[in-house]
């Protein structure tokens, strides 16, 4: 696995510009703060929604036989750009101990459910089994 942060590009502590990993690419459904019954966890509470969304990402990774280190790219959709600090805190906690993926942050007018505040889309590289 390699991360790339070219000189001349803005450097951040919460993403890398590129993360390269060998394997099979998987493009899962974007994850939100729904529980297993489809109810929004943390309506109106960005910290609760970030925690549930990353919990769901962890469950999805486990189902793929993958880990957070296998995520090479995230796209985070938010209904309020002021949520960035809460999202960065949750992101750093989830990716603690591994190289951060590349990241894009997009402000949107709304998501699939009016109570959802964020959605995180991923690109995961499943390591090839030898």
Automatic annotation (TrEMBL):
One Pfam family matching this protein: Ribonuc_L-PSP
Coiled-coil regions, chain positions: none
InterPro entries according to UniProt: RutC-like_sf, YjgF/YER057c/UK114
GO molecular function: deaminase activity
A GO CC annotation given for this chain: cytosol
Family: Belongs to the RutC family.
Protein name: RidA family protein
Species: Acidisoma silvae
């Amino acid at each position: 696995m390699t991360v790339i942060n070219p000189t001349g590009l803005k450097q951040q502590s919460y993403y890398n510009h590129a993360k390269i990993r060998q394997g099979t690419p998987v493009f899962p459904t974007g994850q939100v703060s729904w529980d297993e019954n489809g109810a929004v966890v943390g309506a109106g509470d960005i910290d609760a929604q970030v925690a549930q969304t990353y919990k769901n990402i962890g469950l999805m990774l486990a189902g793929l036989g993958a880990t957070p280190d296998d995520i090479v790219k995230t796209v985070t959709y938010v209904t309020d750009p002021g949520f960035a600090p809460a999202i960065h805190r949750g992101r750093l906690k989830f990716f603690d101990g591994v190289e951060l993926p590349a990241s894009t942050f997009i402000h949107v007018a709304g998501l699939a459910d009016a109570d959802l505040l964020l959605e995180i889309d991923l690109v995961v590289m499943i390591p090839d089994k030898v």
